[in-house]
Each structure stands twice: as structure tokens, then as C-alpha cells.
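Blinded run. Sample ID left blank on purpose so nobody reads anything into the name before looking at the predicted structure. Input follows.
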Amino acid sequence: MGKSHAVSAPFRLMGLRARLVRELADGERHTTSGLARGLSAPAAQVVCEIAELPALGLHVETPAQNNWQLSRPLDLLTAQTIRADLSSQVASRLDALTVTAVTQSTNDDLRTRAAPGPGRFAVALAEFQTAGRGRLGREWVSPFASGICLSISTALSSPLAQIGTLSLALGVAVHRGISALGVSGLKLKWPNDLMINDEKLGGLLVETDSSNKGAARVIVGLGVNVEPVQPAAGLQPAALRGRTSVPLGRSALAARLINSLADGLMKYMAEGFSAFSADWQQHDALDGRELTVQLGNAQLVGVARGINPAGELQLETAAGMRTVAAGEVSLGAL
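Blinded prediction complete.
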């Protein structure tokens, strides 16, 4: 997701601040006195709390003295709506679903809980993460209520060594779910990004351990941009708003993504990557394009030639075909 601001310390949304966000979520103009009455709080305290909201990526405008208005209304997630929109198959396998306003990381939230058994799921969602992360330990920050930040946890019966293609398979599963909304031009960038016109729409992070009584515990984090956000480091991220064939609330979208991930996990457990490979190749954003792959302090430059059955990138270089299991990919020669 797009990184539009920095968070210097963990930020908790609770009490007065949480209620203030809900009051302002309609995107309408609110007076200081009106907010103070509605929140049963001193006006000076309300103003102090408003001053803290930019740490969440919320832009507060002052259209007139002592008037406050968010730059955009917020479509807040609700657990009840998400549960209602889940497929019956996924809902019957769901052990837990939580929605948090602010957390450090939804992946970490699930890691602190007991892992569901094979074929069972636990889901955590948040409006904002203070320590969200992507591949290679990168910070992953998205403004409050601007996208979907969710994680799903389960246990696989397969040994860890056999699930190296899981991230690719789930990328295909999410691609299928989003494409069904009428979104065109959606591609998959090896190994775990969703792209539209070479702009990043979202990404996956798969983390595993074998501490769950020998089974492979899997936590899958997914971030998808819904609202347009400010570009970071000169890169403009893509967003779903305006790209779907029908309007879709964030809770309904979250349910669709949970369905996609859960269905993908179940299909992967039953059939492996072979059930996803053809679709991945069809939607490969890199195939036939010149790339630079950063491997530690070394670089490989070549033309992408798809992936092999193990999910590794095939790169045609001047020295011949190379197989890349992990690395940072950039388009073109640096």
C-alpha cells in the first residue's frame, strides 16, 4: 500500500480519540463546540485530540474558525457486516474474526493467538497498522480506513518445505476475487504484488512456523489500496476506488478478500500450486520484460521468462538462463 506519512511511535486509538474519529467519519463539517457536546469532553481536549489525527494519515481541514472536517468521509469496517458477507463455506470454518481500529500488525495479532487447525481460519483486520510490514522487512503504512489491512491464519498439513509457492497461489486467489468485481488490467508481479498499469495495488506477506504441534502454521497478510493515497518515493500506488463495475463498501470488499484467501488456502491444500500455475502465468506482469534483480550486493539484469514449477523466477541473462528464488525486482536495467 502507499506510504504517505511516518509513524514515529505506536499509536493507540481508544476512548475519546476513537469516538472523535467516529464523529468526524461522515466527512461533514463539525464545530468544536458541537464535537465537545457530542463527546462530553472539554473543547480544549477535543482540539488536542484533533491535532493527533494526522499521525493516522487523516487530513483534517478547517473550513472556518473552530470548524473541523476530514478531507474524505470514512467507510469504517464492521465485523458484523463482514461476517454477513462471507460465503457459507468460509463462515462455517471461521474460528475468530476481529476488527481493530489501530494495531501494530494484524499478522502479529494472529501470531499471539492459538493457531486454528487445518481447514479452520482466524482473521484479524485493522483500520491502521503502526508497524505493518511487507517483504524483506519493509515498513507498510496506509492511512486510516483507506484500504484493507487483514491477516488470515490457519495450519497446513504440508511440511514447510512444500509450501514455497503458497504466496504465488494466494496472489492468484486474490486476483480472481478482485477481477470478478470488473477491475481490468490487474496483474501479478513476482513474487507477491498486485499491479495495475505497473502501479502497486496491494501485496501479500506469508509467514510460517512449525510450532503448532508439527503442523505448518501459516499467517497471510494482505494489503489492498481502496482510496487513492499520496505517492511515496515518487511511486504512485493504484487504488480500487472507481475501478469496480459496482460500488462496494470496504466491509463487503474485506469479506470478498477473506473468501478469496480462505478458498485459495483450501484449494492449495487439496491440489497444490498446479491449480494456480496457469492463471499465474496468464497474469504475469513481468513476462518478457527487462528486469534488474537485486541479490544482496549483486545485481542480475535480464529478461523475465516466467516461473518454474517451484515458483522461482526465470531470468534470461547475457550469461544464460538464471533461476531466482528470492530478490528485489525492478523494471528495466538500473
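Unblinding after everyone has recorded impressions. The longest helix spans residues 250-271.
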